[in-house]
Amino acid sequence: MKVTKTQALAFGILLIISLFATNAVRAQDHEHGHEEEAAGEYDPVGTVMHHIADANEFHVWKGIHIPLPCFLYAADHGWTILSSGKFEHGHKAIDRYVLNHGRVNRIADPAFPMGEVHIEGVHGHKEKMMVKGKEKEVEVFYAEHEGKQFKLEKSTTWDGGMMGGGITSYYDFSITKNVFTMLLAALLLILIFSAVSQGYKRNEGQAPNGIQSFFEPFFVFIRDEVAKPMIGEKKYERFMPFIMTLFFFILFCNLLGLLPFFPGGSNVTGNIGVTFVLAVFAFIVTNLNGNKHYWEHIFWMPGIPAWVKTILTPVEVLGLVIKPFSLMIRLFANISAGHIIILSLIGLVFVFGNNGTNFGGGIAGAVIGGAFTAFMNLIELLVAFLQAFVFSLLTASYIGAAVDEGHGHDHDHDHDYKHAH
Amino acid sequence: MTHFVFIGGISVMQPDPGLIFWTTLIFLLVWIVLGRMAFRPIQNALKKRDGDIQNALDEAKRAREEIGQMKSQNEQLLKEAQEQRTVILKEAQTMRDSIIGKAKEDAKTQVQAMIAEAKTDVEHMREELRISIKNEVGQMALDIAEKLIRKELKSSADNQALTKQLVEEIKFN
Q: Is residue B2 part of a domain?
C-alpha cells in the first residue's frame, strides 16, 4: 500500500497528539505521586478509571488546572456555589466540601466546622468493608485537620449501591468536565448549524457552498440511510430533528472526547449518566408515538395461540425497557472502552519505566505506547462516527416500529390492505 | 480480592444526578434550538431543492420530448409538402398541356372559320362582280343599240359597219 504525504502527515500529527496525551497523563500522575508514595507503585487500573471519570476541574498541564463552577446541594445545609479553584487542591475545606483528586467530596462528620477551613491534605487508606455481604478492600479517603482524620464521602449517585455508590448527604450539580464539554458541543452545534441553515437561505436555488456543503452529506446520509428506511417515507419528517440532534450531539461529544487536551478529553458519552439520558429520550419519543398497532403487538400479539401470548407479552414488555437499555450500554461501553484502551497504552510508559525509575523503559514505553495510541486514535475516530450512527439508526428503528401501520407484517393485514385498495 | 478504586470520583458506571440533570438540559436545549433553527429549515430547504431539481429534470425531459415530437412533425410536414409539390407540378404540367392543346385546337378552328368566311366573301364578290359586269355589258349593249339606232337613221351600210366595229370594241378587259 502506498502511503501518501497526507497520510504520513496525519499519522505524524496523531503521534504528536498521543505523545502530548502521554505527557498530560504523566504530569497528572506526578501530581498524584506525592499522595500515592506510600503505596509506591503505579496503579494502572486506578489511574485509567480516574481519567475516564468525571471531574470538577480541567487538568491542563503539570500543576495547571482550569477550575469549574460547583453547585453543591446538601440536605442539611442547602446550596453551596463556588469555583472549584477555591478548594486549593485538597488543602481547604469549604462548608465541609473538599476537592479529592479533582472531584468534590464532603466530610461526613457534622463535627467538622463549616466555612473555609484549612486542611493538611487528603489521604486514602485501604480498608476492609462489607459490600453486599462480601468483604472487599476499598480505598477510603480522609481529610486531615488539626491532626484528626475526617472521613470523606462521595456525592449521591443513582445506582442503588450496585456500582458501589448510593445516596449520601449531598448532591453535586456542578458544571463538571463532562458538562463543560457538553456545553461546548452544544455551542459548537448551534454555531455551526446556524451557519449551515443560513447557507440554505442565502443559496436558495443554488448549489451549497462552504460549511453548508460540508455538513449536507451528513444530513442527507442520516435522512436517506437512517430516517427514511427505518421510520418510513411517510412519517420520517416529524422525527428528523430528534434523530439529527441525537446523531450530531453524540458525534460532537465523541469527537471532543478524543481531543487529548483542554476543551476535550472528557469521557462524556462514556459515562452511563449521559447515555442514560439519551436512552430515556429515545424511550420517551418511541413510546409517546406508539400507535394502536404497536401496543397491540406488545400486549396481545395477533395471529398466535393464546398460550404463546402468555409468554410473549412479558418478553415484549421487557423489550420496551431492554431496547433503550441496550442503547445506553452500547454507547457507554464503546466509548469508555476506547478511552480505557488509549489510557492503558499510554500507561505502558509508566509500566515499562517502573513509574519513573527506569528511563530507558519509559522511552520504549513512550514509543510503543505512542505508536499504538496513534493507531487506536484512528479506530476511535471511526468508532466516534459509528456509535453516533448506530445510536441514531437503532433509535430510528424503534420509532419506526412504534409508528408502523403494520401492513406487510402479517398476512391477513396485508391481504386486507390489498383488498381495500 | 481487588476492587476497582475510583479515586475520589464517581465511576463512569454510577449515574450521577448532577450529570443527568445537565445532560437532560443541554440535550433538550440542542434539540429545541437546532430543531427550530436548523434541522427543520434545512430539511425543508433540501426537500424544496430536491423537488426543484426533479421538476427541472422533468421539465428538461418533457422539453426534449416536445422538441423530438416537433422535429418529427416538421419532417412529416416537409414530406407532405414535397409530395404536394410533386402533385401540383404534375397537375400544372397536365394543365399546361391541355391548355396548349386547347389553344391550338381553338386557333385551328378559328383559322378554318376565317378561311371559310374569306372564301364566301370572295364568292360573293365574284358574284357581285359578275352581276355588275353583266349589268355593265347589258348597259353597253343598250348604248351600242342606241348608237346603232341613231346611225341607222343615216345609212344602213354604215350602220352595219359601225355595229361590227362596236361589237369588236366590247372586250372584257
A: no
Mapping DSSP onto H, E and C, the string for A42-103 reads CCHHHHHHHHHCCCCEEEEECCEEEECEEEEEECCCEEEEEEHHHHCCCCEEECCEEEECCE
- Reported as a single tens digit per residue, the pLDDT across B22-39 is 999 999 999 999 999 999
B48 to chain A, minimum CA–CA distance in Å?
Answer: 9
> Is B43 inside a domain boundary?
yes
Q: How many domains does chain B have?
A: 1
CB contact under 8 A, B12 and A270: yes
The residue count for chain A: 421
Whether the model pTM is above 0.80: no
Identify the DSSP state of A355: G
- Categorize the per-residue pLDDT at A5 as very low, low, confident or very high, splitting at 50, 70 and 90: low
CB-CB contact of A347 with A48 (8 Å): yes
Domain count along chain A: 2
In a domain, A284, yes or no: yes
Burial A294-310 (b: 16+ CB within 10 A, else e): beebbeeeeeeeeeeee
For cell 449521591, name the residue: A156
Set of cell numbers at residue A421: 385498495
pLDDT (tens digit, 9 = 90+) per residue, B87-144?
999 999 999 999 999 999 999 999 999 999 999 999 999 999 989 988 888 888 888 8
Alpha helices by DSSP H, listed for chain B, are 17-34, 40-152, 156-169
Q: Which amino acid is at B173?
A: N
Instruction: State residue A410's pLDDT score.
Output: 47
Does A419 contact B at CB distance below 8 Å? no
Which residues span the domain enclosing B161? Answer: 17-169
What is the per-residue pLDDT across A20-45, written as a single tens digit (0 to 9) for each?
444 444 444 444 433 443 345 677 88
The string of DSSP codes covering A275-334 is HHHHHHHHHHHHHHT--HHHHHHHHS-TTS-HHHHHHHHHHHHHHHHHHHHHHHHHHHHH
Grid coordinates representing A280?
430515556
The answer for B 44-63 residues in CB contact with A (under 8 A) is 45-46, 49, 52
3-state secondary structure of A209: coil
Predicted local distance difference test score (pLDDT) of residue A18: 52
Q: Would you say residue A4 lies in a domain?
A: no
- Sort out which chain A residues have CB atoms less than 8 A from B53's CB and list them: none
- Host H or E run for residue A351: helix A306-352
**End-to-end CA, chain A:** 57
Nearest Cα to Cα of residue B17 among A329, A176, A321: A176
Does the beta-carbon distance from A103 to B52 stay under 8 Å?
A: no
Same domain, yes or no: A309 and A162: no
Within a domain: residue B34? yes
* H/E segment holding residue B38: none
**Nearest-5° Cα angle at A126, A124 to A132:** 120
The residue segments making up the domain with residue A217 are 180-420
